[in-house]
Amino acid sequence: MPVSDFLRLPPPAQQPFARPFIKMQGLRNHFVFLDCREVALPSKAEVIRICDVHAGVGAEQVITIEQPRSSGAAAFMGIHNTDGTEAQACGNATRCLAWLLFEETGRTEVLIDSLGGPLHCLRQADGQVSVTLGPITVDNPHLPLVSGPLKDGVALSIGNPHAVFFVDEDVDIPAAAPAIARDPLFPDSVNVGVAQVLDQKTLKLAVWERPGMLTEACGTGACVAAYAGRLRGLLTGDEITVQLPGGTLLIRLLPDGRAVMTGPVEFCCTGYV
To answer: Which has the closest alpha carbon to 81: 62, 54, 68?
Structure first.
């Protein structure tokens, strides 16, 4: 039985109101998936409890699989943060959901709807998935913000907002990034990427994510960091390797401003909440 079928199993007799879940991770960015195509969405309180490692399953986001909203899409992806708010995009979660939909449908190519727009996904060899994200837009090429070593950043959007800062050495990100994320310039907060250029085709990146945590990996952050690096003339070519704490992503920048992100996905566990 494909692991994706677990989401459609009835709850155990002793827990008639329980929801089946699947937990997956992409570069140690970990998610709980709930199939909500035929049942109600989880409440904000339920999302918070599920994400809480002490009280629930533990996750950086809860991903709801919902009925598609456009013709040709396999599903709509709802992205729920640890505080119950919704995000517009998440590259690592998209790869994981695509893998579940590949298993469910037998396809090697799927389209996923999201608040950030349609996402085209391809199954690759060795557990790798490619997702086309974007287009990337530049909101401010030279941010007028400084927090410790973070200065002269680039504000971009890829369905969700990012501020990318280039540094020459490792930075205490939890000390410097929150002030940027909370700045009034970003009324809905912002993901803060801190990047080091290792060579003209390689970045080292860490991301302070909304609603306030240092994540092991950020797929959309990797895409915008590669884009910003090329915008600044720090990177060359269309294919950029981005090294994150949780592993490596390959980012291919397209002429129309979109980015193709390729990376691994892994199954963690199943259960009921």
So the answer is: 62
CATH number of the structural domain spanning residue 83? 3.10.310.10
The single residue of 51, 96, 218, 223 carrying the catalytic annotation is 218
CA nearest to 193, candidates 230, 166, 168: 166
Q: What residue numbers bound the domain in which 107 lies? A: 3-130+264-272
Same domain, 114 and 147: no
Residue 121 a catalytic site member: no
Q: What is the pLDDT of residues 212-228, one digit of tens each?
A: 899 999 999 999 999 99
- In this structure, the number of other CB atoms found within 10 A of the CB of residue 247 comes to 15
94-114: per-residue pLDDT in tens? 999 999 999 999 999 999 999
Q: CA 235, CA 205: separation in Å to the nearest integer?
A: 14
Predicted TM-score of the model (pTM)? 0.92
The domain tally of the chain equals 2
218 an active-site residue?
yes
Residue of 36, 51, 90, 96 marked active site: 90
Distance CA 94, CA 91 (A): 5
